[in-house]
Amino acid sequence: MNISLAADKEFDVIAVGRACVDLNAVEYNRPMEETMTFKKYVGGSPANIAIGSSKLGLKAGFIGKIPDDQHGRFIEQYMNGQGIDTSSMVVDTEGRKTGLTFTEILSPEECSILMYREEAADLYLEPAEVHEDYIKRTKLLLISGTALAQSPSREAALKAVHLAKKNGIKVVFELDYRPYTWKSAEETAVYYSLVAEKADIVVGTREEYDVMEHRLGKGENQATVDYLFQHEPELVVIKHGVDGSYAYTRSGETYRGRAYKTKVLKTFGAGDSYASAFLYALVCGKDIETALKYGSASASIVVSKHSSSEAMPAVEEIEALIEENNTIKS
Amino acid sequence: MNISLAADKEFDVIAVGRACVDLNAVEYNRPMEETMTFKKYVGGSPANIAIGSSKLGLKAGFIGKIPDDQHGRFIEQYMNGQGIDTSSMVVDTEGRKTGLTFTEILSPEECSILMYREEAADLYLEPAEVHEDYIKRTKLLLISGTALAQSPSREAALKAVHLAKKNGIKVVFELDYRPYTWKSAEETAVYYSLVAEKADIVVGTREEYDVMEHRLGKGENQATVDYLFQHEPELVVIKHGVDGSYAYTRSGETYRGRAYKTKVLKTFGAGDSYASAFLYALVCGKDIETALKYGSASASIVVSKHSSSEAMPAVEEIEALIEENNTIKS
Amino acid sequence: MNISLAADKEFDVIAVGRACVDLNAVEYNRPMEETMTFKKYVGGSPANIAIGSSKLGLKAGFIGKIPDDQHGRFIEQYMNGQGIDTSSMVVDTEGRKTGLTFTEILSPEECSILMYREEAADLYLEPAEVHEDYIKRTKLLLISGTALAQSPSREAALKAVHLAKKNGIKVVFELDYRPYTWKSAEETAVYYSLVAEKADIVVGTREEYDVMEHRLGKGENQATVDYLFQHEPELVVIKHGVDGSYAYTRSGETYRGRAYKTKVLKTFGAGDSYASAFLYALVCGKDIETALKYGSASASIVVSKHSSSEAMPAVEEIEALIEENNTIKS
Amino acid sequence: MNISLAADKEFDVIAVGRACVDLNAVEYNRPMEETMTFKKYVGGSPANIAIGSSKLGLKAGFIGKIPDDQHGRFIEQYMNGQGIDTSSMVVDTEGRKTGLTFTEILSPEECSILMYREEAADLYLEPAEVHEDYIKRTKLLLISGTALAQSPSREAALKAVHLAKKNGIKVVFELDYRPYTWKSAEETAVYYSLVAEKADIVVGTREEYDVMEHRLGKGENQATVDYLFQHEPELVVIKHGVDGSYAYTRSGETYRGRAYKTKVLKTFGAGDSYASAFLYALVCGKDIETALKYGSASASIVVSKHSSSEAMPAVEEIEALIEENNTIKS
């Protein structure tokens, strides 16, 4: 099955939400207490997806709020340099800050992050700063779950979804669950189900769908898709880590994608690179089975490198890895 | 046209949201500065609707949060005494307060209110305090717009709507717009349209629908119903003050109800008494045209009296007024 | 001993802090749940002291913040009508509210209050709204402990004390402890000791001094005055309820005042009427022993009446009661 | 003149307030947007002064709050490793963060900082976490002005001053004015004058004293010391940048210290290194004139190096620089 998208749009994808700064440990395989140097990258799930998509050749735009300081200007300059349209990035005037993520790489399997999200500018995007004219210009609108974590960013994201649906623009919901900024699991479930019911494509890990369903144990994929297909979604992707990912369509098909083996440096950035390449494949008109391969290959490349944004692969790298694995398999 | 409701339910209506205290001027037709005595009543739109419905003979329940103080206990005791099931009213444990509304009656045409809504307990109802088992027991779930004004009451109301829809319970959305507790008109429009799209019956004034549509000037009823009937609603009531009210059905019918003349003491409470009697008529299986008459008659009785809750009329009073007006007209 | 005050000042006393609205139960000797009518009075300790002083013939001024609403205007009009200079009462422009105190009179011995202090305008007096020119015009500056409970009112009160000391104006500190608005007992102790050390006259109950000293059990008066006389105070009044009150001077004298018997209606307002009459006596040049009698007599008159502010007695009433008791005693 | 200090104390100095993380630009002489790597150091004025003092051989302790995360543990480990007693550093349990300071070195003359101070753990030190027993063990208690910027750290610092004065411990007030966390200049002036009046030794720049006096233009040193010597201070140090510093004593002496020439890398850390060496000299019983030299020499060494904490000099370096300058001068 292929997903049909509007043909005559200027942008392939417009992402909504946070664009932040990652401070990655230069000395790694040790506790962060012993890391003395940090390298700066643009970060944040929707920013990473916009960067990854742009690197693959999609035309991407971004709706978000950045601070009026050195980190804010760095983000805007970097994304602009990557070919992303930043005309809808709003500069905060209230002294808010860029969200920061310090990464700790204890070992390839044990990574953790230390987030600075207090008064982060991205969470202060106002609904009045989201414009119908801009949203009408894209094939896909990508909403990151974290944009729903606090007001007024929450209302800005809800308004973007409302305007997209009103104008027949397909909505992609990347669950991107970060417990840090949410008040309670109940609250997350309320907004995750609200937006998932209205989205056309939903992408997340099994654990993130359990959060959406406000479930303590691990849910069944079938129950999740039965619920979502009563509403707007036509494609639901559920990721199971090293066990690969599954795509379900409203028309009843199920596809499975394998995870690609790689030498892992750290686990950050896997989801964002997956989403970039998966959406790239859909926009190029590839079938869902192929899109799953693009997603997995892209993720496996990023986890072998130091950053999440700068490490986003080119199409050739992805296709080479797929080809290589096809050969191995046979 | 009649609205079909589930037959086998314990409650006719469960209202969600605020139950507060009104302090009505004992000496009126003067500025509040010169009013020295105030009389205490239960107030708040959904509480008034529950009281009005109960007085008319419906079995009503209430989901809300009241403080652990003398005003909170007064509310619970009064509503319980009116036959309302208060088993789902939660007592706040964080020292919050009962919302207060001081009323100023300068003249029958010039009324104003002075609201105390800071840290009002009703706005702190948590989603975890809304239970599926309770909501399953009613024919109608009534959501008041003010419950959406702040978190966590907002999420509690959204969860109640989600649970009602999941269980096939009809949702009535009374727009009940009070600018006081909202941060911006944009924010109100986001949540009003979100809930109105999911409701089965929507009731409000023309001005309140303009708020929902985030419109500066006055909108057209036809545009409003064209929009809402693309979503879940099957019945939309739009009130135009002394020019009467209109009911629109998804199947294309339009009904008009006249306003009844009365000796007005004050304008408060008209909307709540309208909603109580309108819903009463629907539950009793009366047609929409008749339901509009019940609403108008009930409203005209309440505006001639001192309170909003205690003044809620009995069926006989409503029917006598309708009869009297039918006679006059002929 | 007499307290020497500047002779050439326009005001006898300027009070700083809250001016609020009391809503007193019209039907009493019952729980508030059963009280249906409330009578409105101006309230708040420093407002009551200004009103009481003014009724006794002192020239009083007031520094405080009132809301831009009907209750705010009522307060200003009432205090102005009592002869108080309200030129330094600032009108809030941020939508804050008048603090409210609902009184419950279960019996003459069991009284309680229900306070509304969230976003109360009086706590938002800014230090920039306290002016040296105004403070220079008074003999006594009266600080109420509650003004220290929150910023920015706290800084406004500290600035007023600073300016008074700088200009040789005597500072009276009325401890007026209301736990409601304080975050912790530790915090109260920090500011109470800070201001008490700088004040010239300190007035409070034994329990309030225990709060100042951050003491769990009941402290000894001698320890309290030993501590305070190492700093600025020259006169310390410690009230022991029905056991009367004690005044201690820096020069080592101790005076005891008896409590006057009366038919108690409620306990509210006793402290404010005590302070008004005590300060009146000092300003009139009476000795401390006589001032204690004025305080006690005034308190006993107010507790026999319905309000705290309107019930403030005239000089003749106070003197008649003192005379009557002198006669009885002999 | 020498300052007499208690002889029999375990600690020479206990500092109160913030201990944070500095992230210093590794690539400098460029805008921060172009700096891609940052090096981590312990920072924050009172932490730097404790580190500097400890390096010079004083026995230092610290009262402050650090987060329960990797940065918090780094701070505690580093300071402990420098010989500072960290037994009174409290670990925050509410998820607060370490304050961060990114430094931008455009040129030796143009340096700026980007501070992260939202929900910084140090500002949440509670008065209940400051203990009399600990404060009794030191010769000097050092209060940093920034600790007064917000509650509850403000009350913790006020309590520390209260306990020091009660026990005859000398209080050093380092004005350390950082506009970022203060609400208004009026508020700063209130608390700066409050603590400066109670301190024994006050140290700051001319500009900081202007903040304390809530002055728009530049004040005169003589007016400042005339005011402060009416209260508790016995020694007041006023720094005038490259024009050197002045020390005034209550007994009427004035001393001037020259600034030492150096090759400046950045301007950060000058004040903290000055204070460390000045206090070291006082504790060692050196006269004030010599102490001013120690301060200047220490400052000039730190501004030539990359960090503020790790660059703190040893006694030999300071004395060598003083000696060298003495020789040059002659």
Distance between the termini of chain A: 24 Å
State the major sheet of chain A.
Answer: 9 strands, mixed
Cα radius of gyration of chain A in angstroms: 18 Å
Helicity range of chain A: 25-40%
- Tally the helices of chain A: 10
Class from secondary-structure proportions of chain A: alpha/beta
Mean pLDDT of chain A: 94
Number of strands of chain A: 13
Strand content of chain A: 15-25%
Low-confidence blocks of residues of chain A: none
SSE pattern of chain A = EEEHEHEEEHEHEHEHHEEEHHH
Biggest interface, chains and residue tallies: A-D, 25 and 25 residues
- Secondary-structure arrangement, i.e. CATH architecture of chain A: 3-Layer(aba) Sandwich
Can you tell me the CATH topology of chain A?
Answer: UDP-N-acetylmuramoyl-L-alanine:D-glutamate ligase
The CATH superfamily of chain A appears as: Ribokinase
Strand order of the largest sheet of chain A: 5-4-1-8-9-10-11-12-13
GO molecular function (chains A, B, C, D): 5-dehydro-2-deoxygluconokinase activity; ATP binding
Protein name (chains A, B, C, D): 5-dehydro-2-deoxygluconokinase
Catalytic activity (chains A, B, C, D): 5-dehydro-2-deoxy-D-gluconate + ATP = 6-phospho-5-dehydro-2-deoxy-D-gluconate + ADP + H(+)
GO biological process, one term (chains A, B, C, D): inositol catabolic process
